[in-house]
Amino acid sequence: MIKVANYTFTKLSAAKLDKHTKGCMPIWYHLGSSLPLSRLQSLPQTSCLWSIHRVYAVSDALRITVRLNAQLPQCHLHRKNCGCNPCRLNHEASCCSSNKCCMLANELIANLRLRWHPSHLLPVDNLTVTD
Question: Which domain of life does this protein belong to (predicted)?
Answer without folding.
Answer: Eukaryota
